[in-house]
Amino acid sequence: MPWCGRGELYQGEETARFPAPSSCNFSGRSRKQRKEAVHSSQSEEMCRSTEVAKEQSLDNLWLAQILFDLDGVKFGNFTVSESAVSSPVFINPKVLISHPTALRVASKLMQQEINLAQSLRRPRVHPFSVVAGVPVGGLLLATAYSQETNIPMIYARTRPEGTGKRGIEGRFNRGDSALIIDDLITGGSSVLETATLLEENGLKVKDVIVLIDREHGAAERLRQRGYNLLSILKLDVMLNHYMSRGLIPEETYRACAEYLRGKQGERAEQADE
Q: Strands 167-169, 228-234: parallel, antiparallel or unpaired by DSSP?
């Protein structure tokens, strides 16, 4: 499939994406002029954020399409996890390793999402010095992200494997802040398990970014524990794309939509308890 996103994804660093507006220079201005300049700066920031969001949405849908083309999205009856029994849709983002361009796009989209969140007047992502992937899919994405951004990666082994004990692989300092990366989130248990291990070893965790949010209440569950969740794709957006492209029949779309509404209803009931 030809690339339908923005070529800017493949152009160097993102440091110039959010330059300070020239209107932020207030020297020699009257109070009225300074007030007008602040308003102009805020408007420019909102317009810039909107523009970037629109550009990213095209790339997000391209990635959703690639996942479908690689058979990373299947429909039927699946038990994905304890919180996703009899799910009509199964998503396997790990297939992206077979498509290097798509894997790089995924890491770039995460980078753009983080840059955008940090550029806001009230940043939505805290500074971090290392990234930690959630095994197994999150490790693949974290590796791609680390190579793309040159930010060091660590591996949080939440349970013994072979000769490796429970612990953290890689170099870090106590007090460092870590960004958790995962490919898919359902209820959030794996992310919470990783965050606990990181914190036990003296790392700080504030933010989590995932490629796909299945919208099973993970965002709220993480928020209650003090973690902020960002996602590149949401399940309902993917389903709408597949339906609009004629890739899935209406019956399948309705079954998935009903399933998601049921999960949202469960979250609402839990919140009321």
A: unpaired
Structure tokens at 256: 């998935």
DSSP state of 216: S
Positive or negative CA dihedral for 190, 194, 195, 199? Answer: positive
65-94: string of b/e by CB count within 10 Å (b at 16+)?
Answer: bbbbebebbebeeeebeebbeebbbebebb
pLDDT at 24: 40
Residue 236 tokens, joined: 């309902």
Contact between 207 and 227 (Cβ < 8 Å): yes
Cα 72 from Cα 93, distance rounded (Å): 6
Total length of the chain = 273
Residues 6+ apart with CB under 8 A from 111: 14, 145, 148, 149
Residues 233, 213 contacting (CB under 8 angstroms): yes
Cα distances (angstroms) measured from residue 53 to each of 56, 191, 209, 265: 5, 26, 16, 29
Report the percentage of the chain scoring pLDDT > 70.
Answer: 74
pLDDT value, residue 51: 53
In this prediction the pTM is 0.78
Cα separation, 156 vs 105, whole angstroms: 24
Per-residue pLDDT tens digits for 33-83: 444 444 444 455 445 555 545 555 778 999 999 999 999 999 999 987 666
Angstrom distance (rounded) from CA 248 to CA 61? 15
Sign, CA dihedral 45-61-229-221, equals: positive
Tens of pLDDT, residues 234-271? 999 999 999 999 999 999 999 999 999 888 767 655 55
Residues 156-182, mean pLDDT to the nearest whole number: 92
Tokens describing residue 85: 């029994």
Residue whose C-alpha is closest to residue 102's, from 152, 54, 59, 58: 59
**CB hemisphere CA count around 127 (13 angstroms):** 3
